[in-house]
Design goal:
Elements lengths: L2 H6 L8 E7 L4 E4 L5 E8 L2 E5 L6 E3 L4 E5 L4 E4 L8 E3 L5 E2 L11 E3 L2 E3 L6 E8 L7 H5 L4 E4 L7 H10 L7 H21 L8 H5 L5 H10 L7 H8 L3 H12 L3 H19 L4 H7 L5 H12 L3 H6 L13
Parallel strand pairs: 1-11, 2-8
Antiparallel strand pairs: 1-12, 2-7, 3-6, 3-12, 4-5, 4-7, 6-13, 8-9, 10-11
């Protein structure tokens, strides 16, 4: 697994919130859904994104893509100063600023919502609703808001396909949309990280180191192996102390801490995506005992593997995009 594959392996939408927003000025929507990540693309007209974190507003025109990292709130509007008219809360619930529901009055069709059926601005919105759909390492690598201009990108066909599929209601449509969202996000981030002067995370840059990069690939490709620092050092041809020091300096954490986080991230996916028992999941990611795995999982995730699996999936919103 190369560095980029390791970084982008995380996005796996499950019943993502997808919406085609059609608006006519003046309009402004306050986003307080606390979602971990949201991708927005303008296909017609323009839109402005105003983060709360003191960052300057960003203007999107047709073909531009923006990725907002939660849970901090932000505003999407027709201009940099337009006051919010609507509020999006957790789960996609939409109200006025006074709490009055807007779902029915602004519904324009399947996954289509706005204040005018022929509005001059069209924005495609794809939101990852749950922690775990996006890896923590990927989220940590991103700024609160990134903009990828339309110039020089290859995501045009994917964006066009998402635009045509988002308002369809065919069998299995939610799965099609989930995968399209994943592909569009991965392509966007791949392009963003390949920019000249891109500030990739430390562990990503460490992949270029001949020793630490090899160690990272061993851990990522063989997570169930009974790794020790000594075993890693032997495989990479350096001393144990030398590997531990170099790995920590470049990656920002010791090798075994990195391995634990990687194993538990893989385990979280297995718990949500398969019917494997907790014991089987534990063995698959390198734990010989289910008890030790459960203890480590709860320490990092805050819940037991069983409770994490019971968390289920978000409601799939197909015909009513905002409730």
């Amino acid at each position: 697994m190369d560095a980029l594959a390791g970084l982008l392996d995380g996005p796996r939408a499950r019943g993502a919130f997808l919406l085609r927003m059609v608006m006519e000025p003046p309009w402004s929507v306050r986003i307080e859904d606390r979602a971990p990540l949201c991708l927005m693309a303008v296909t017609e007209g323009e839109a402005w994104i105003r983060p709360d974190a003191g960052t300057a507003p960003v203007r999107l025109t047709p073909g531009d893509l923006a990725v907002a990292r939660g849970p901090e709130p932000y505003t999407v509007a027709d201009g940099p100063d337009t006051a919010p008219h609507a509020l999006i809360g957790p789960g996609g619930g939409c109200t006025t600023l006074r709490g009055e529901p807007l779902a029915q009055s602004m519904r324009l069709g399947i996954r289509t919502w706005g204040n005018a059926a022929e509005g001059s601005a069209v924005v495609l919105v794809g939101t990852y609703l749950m922690d775990g759909e996006i890896s923590g390492r990927l989220l940590d690598a991103l700024p609160p808001l990134l903009l990828l201009p339309a110039d020089g990108r290859t995501t045009g066909p994917l964006l066009s396909l998402l635009g045509s599929e988002i308002a369809r209601d065919e069998p299995g449509q939610s799965v099609v949309l989930d995968r399209l969202l994943d592909l569009l996000l991965i392509d966007t981030l791949r392009t963003w990280f390949s920019r000249p002067g891109a500030e990739a995370p430390a562990w990503y840059r460490a992949m270029g180191d001949p020793v630490v990069g090899q160690a990272l690939r061993l851990l990522q490709n063989e997570p169930a192996h009974p790794w020790t620092v000594a075993a890693l050092a032997a495989r990479t041809g350096v001393s144990r102390a030398g590997l531990a020091r170099r790995f920590t300096e470049l990656v920002g954490e010791p090798p075994m801490s990195y391995l634990t986080e990687w194993r538990l991230a893989l385990a979280a996916d297995l718990l949500r995506e398969t019917d494997a028992t907790v014991e089987a999941v534990a063995r698959k990611v390198g734990y010989s005992q289910a008890f030790a795995f459960s203890t480590a999982f709860k320490r990092v995730r805050g819940v037991s593997p069983q409770d994490y699996r019971k968390g289920g999936l978000p409601d799939r919103q197909q015909s009513l995009p905002i409730s």
